[in-house]
Structures are given as structure tokens and as C-alpha cells.
Design goal:
With about 170 residues, this protein is of the alpha/beta class. It has a domain of about 110 residues: 3-Layer(aba) Sandwich (Hypothetical Protein Ychn, Chain: A). Helices cover about 35% and strands about 20% of the residues. It contains 6 helices and 7 strands, in the order E-E-E-H-E-H-H-H-E-H-E-H-E. The strands form 2 sheets. Strands 6-5-4-3-7 form a 5-stranded parallel sheet. Strands 1-2 form a two-stranded antiparallel sheet.
């Protein structure tokens, strides 16, 4: 790590400042349920664990689809209203466009050895990362614990998420 040297303005002496403190803990919020919104959070959580950084993932709103057992294998790429697709919304809305984009994205990720969502969540959980569902969203969507994959540690409130995130870098994807 780089050491920074500054000059004390009062007496002209140089002082060494210590390097930035390494990240020890991250809390990642996944709030959208399309493939291109879920994968960045999973990749970041996995990367954190590979670096020995504690990781907590909090799924809320449509991000819950990534941990709902019956939906997690069916996530799609959003082609309508997605400016990163670089296609007109009208084209993105054509029948089959989302399926085609999803197939292409999954194919490209497979080439890079990036696992499907279910397998990725299992891997991340096996590394000791904590996985939580947002209680307010679970209640709003009339879900319960039986709707989620077995890797979900618990359904927690936002306040509990903040408690678990004390000292962490919070990342929204």
C-alpha cells in the first residue's frame, strides 16, 4: 500500500500518514431481479469472500426473485427500458427479445465459468457469506420462509440489516 506524505502547514514539517485501512466487511443490497442486476452483487460478494472480507447480502424488492426457490432459475435480462442494451425500447419489447438476450448473456457467462444464479448463491453461502431477505418486502409480497432457497439465513428488518452491517461498506447494486 502507498504511504502518503503531507506537509504540516503550521510548522512546515513532513508527516507520514498511514495507508488507508483495508476493507474488512461489505454489505451488498440487491434490489432488482433481472440477471444484469443480480450478478454484480453476487460477483462482488464472491470476490469479497475470496479476499477474506466478510460479506452480507440483503435481497429486497424484486431482488428477492434471486433467492425465491421457484424463481431463481428463471431470471431474465431486461430488454425494455434498459439503456445499456443500446436498442430502442420498441425493439426490446418484441416477443422473444428478452429470451434471446438472456440466452446470450448466460452463454457468455458460461464461457467465463460464471455459475448460474442458484449455484452461485450456494457457493457464496458455502464460503460463509450471510444471505438475508427483507422482511418488509417479504410481507408486502405475501411470502414466507418456505418460499426461499435453503441458503437464506433469515428474513430480517432493515434495522437488523443495519446492525449486521455495522462497520461495513454498504454497496447497492
Amino acid at each position: 500500500m502507498t504511504k502518503f506524505i503531507t506537509q504540516d502547514k503550521k510548522n512546515g514539517e513532513e508527516q507520514k500518514e498511514s495507508s488507508p485501512k483495508p476493507i474488512e466487511k461489505v454489505s451488498i443490497v440487491i434490489s432488482k431481479g433481472s440477471l444484469e442486476e443480480v450478478y454484480p452483487g453476487l460477483i462482488m460478494a464472491n470476490g469479497a469472500r475470496m479476499e477474506g472480507i466478510e460479506a452480507t447480502i440483503f435481497f429486497t424488492f424484486f431482488g428477492l426473485d434471486a433467492i425465491i426457490d421457484k424463481r431463481m432459475d428463471k431470471l431474465k435480462v431486461a430488454t425494455v427500458g434498459n439503456p445499456a442494451m443500446h436498442i430502442p425500447t420498441m425493439i426490446g419489447g418484441l416477443p422473444g427479445m428478452s429470451a434471446m438476450a438472456t440466452k446470450k448473456m448466460k452463454s457468455e457467462m458460461e464461457k467465463l465459468d460464471i455459475p448460474p444464479v442458484r449455484e452461485f448463491i450456494e457457493m457464496i453461502s458455502d464460503t460463509g457469506a450471510e444471505i438475508y431477505a427483507c422482511k418488509a418486502t417479504v410481507d408486502m409480497f405475501h411470502l414466507d420462509e418456505s418460499d426461499f432457497c435453503e441458503q437464506v439465513d433469515s428474513i430480517i428488518t432493515v434495522g437488523e440489516f443495519y446492525e449486521k452491517s455495522a462497520g461495513a461498506q454498504i454497496i447497492f447494486t
